[in-house]
């Protein structure tokens, strides 16, 4: 009987075996972090972005508390600009695994027409993501929020600790972080303060894909290459969907593309790719030398834009 490993290309199988013990060590550390946080905090929640990192987080949370259910809800901040396939996957998958899902939207900003075209990407992100996230956490009374940040994903995220302290306004000060010696996490909070917990801190993008493959974890189909309608905008392949506003000179064309990361549809570009299976994605990733988030507009508004958003309370 064949195993998933038998279907891997030779180059990927070699990497998979090299990293198997490494993946087991990462998994063990993440399970420990989940259990530690649940034991220490009164009301934790998991931030659920629907992306590949969130899918790994969900599987780790299931394992950490098996045979019980995941003992905290998932919070998805819905900007109203997520791809339709993401929302369909969110609703179907969370129902299948029996997770409690909370969807929070900044309805006032949405009703006021908040959009990247009206406000610019930075202000739009502030209204539809940061404000909505802070309001959702406050309304739920959550004192700890699990997030899927990885240190290799974006430079400001490399400054975070596993337990990342937030003040009473939900804001982060990178110069006022608590040390974590010998994996000892400081969970002491004053009233109104909270902690963001990052169980994937020591994972890389390649680790995530190898784990998705080894565990056969479902992910949003947009990660797999297929022919899609796109427009080429500023060198970025923008997928055409219900939110797309075509400029006068733009024409829709079909390209073989896939998403490397998922976000709001107006601000997240696709990449040209033929990788339509997990082994092909892993094989493709091994050769990549470009940033995972190079097609995310919110990371490039200005120098240090992601760190600015995180200081304001984003993620």
Automatic annotation (TrEMBL):
The keyword DNA damage does not apply. Residues 296-315 are annotated as: Disordered. Keywords: ATP-binding, Nucleotide-binding, Nucleotidyltransferase, Transferase. Pfam families: PAPS_reduct (PF01507). One of its GO terms (molecular function) is sulfate adenylyltransferase (ATP) activity. Residues 306-315 have a biased composition (Basic and acidic residues). InterPro entries: PAPS_reduct_dom (IPR002500), Rossmann-like_a/b/a_fold (IPR014729), SO4_adenylTrfase_ssu (IPR011784), Sulfate_adenylyltrnsfr_sub2 (IPR050128). The keyword Transmembrane helix does not apply. Residues 44-269 form the Phosphoadenosine phosphosulphate reductase domain. Its EC number is 2.7.7.4. Belongs to the PAPS reductase family. CysD subfamily. This is Sulfate adenylyltransferase subunit 2. It comes from Granulicella cerasi. The gene is cysD.
């Amino acid at each position: 009987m064949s195993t998933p490993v038998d279907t891997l290309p030779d180059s990927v199988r070699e990497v998979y075996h090299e990293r198997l013990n490494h993946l087991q060590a990462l998994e063990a550390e993440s399970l420990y972090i989940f259990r530690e946080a649940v034991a220490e905090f009164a009301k934790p929640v998991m931030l659920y972005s629907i992306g590949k990192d969130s899918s790994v987080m969900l599987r780790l949370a299931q394992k950490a508390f098996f045979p019980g259910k995941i003992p905290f809800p998932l919070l998805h901040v819905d900007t109203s600009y997520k791809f339709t396939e993401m929302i369909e996957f969110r609703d179907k998958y969370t129902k299948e695994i029996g997770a409690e899902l909370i969807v929070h939207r900044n309805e006032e900003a949405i009703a006021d027409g908040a959009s990247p075209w009206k406000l610019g990407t930075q202000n739009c992100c502030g209204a539809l993501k940061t404000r909505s996230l802070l309001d959702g956490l406050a309304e739920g009374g959550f004192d700890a929020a699990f997030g899927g940040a990885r240190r290799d994903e974006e430079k400001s995220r490399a400054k975070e600790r596993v337990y990342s302290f937030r003040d009473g306004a939900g804001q982060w000060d990178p110069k006022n972080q608590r040390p974590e010696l010998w994996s000892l996490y400081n969970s002491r909070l004053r009233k109104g303060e909270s902690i963001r917990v990052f169980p994937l801190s020591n994972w890389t993008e390649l680790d995530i894909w190898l784990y998705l493959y080894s565990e056969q974890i479902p992910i949003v189909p947009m990660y797999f290459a297929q022919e899609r309608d796109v427009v080429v905008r500023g060198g970025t392949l923008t997928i055409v969907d219900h939110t797309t506003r075509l400029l006068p000179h733009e024409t829709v064309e079909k390209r073989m593309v896939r998403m490397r990361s998922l976000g709001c549809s107006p601000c997240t570009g696709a990449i040209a790719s033929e990788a339509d299976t997990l082994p092909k994605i892993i094989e493709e990733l091994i050769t990549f030398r470009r940033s995972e988030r190079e097609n995310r507009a919110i990371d490039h508004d200005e120098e240090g834009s992601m760190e600015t958003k995180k200081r304001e309370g984003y993620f």
